[in-house]
């Protein structure tokens, strides 16, 4: 599965514990990444500044569902049950 352009759920729902440009302490779950543009595109996609956890993320139906809303719900729930 390819990521749905403009979804952004993986840049909002999970916590990220490694530095992100503009967020030196990472980001808490449910907080929008500062590198997520207004149209929900990663502004550092393909850059060496992008955290490894972000580069290693692979979209799948189990995690992303079939809509952006499902992706936000599913990733939020995964974050909740794994913390």
Automatic annotation (TrEMBL):
Pfam families: CxxCxxCC. InterPro entries: Puta_zinc/iron-chelating_dom (IPR005358), UPF0153_domain (IPR052572). This is YkgJ family cysteine cluster protein.
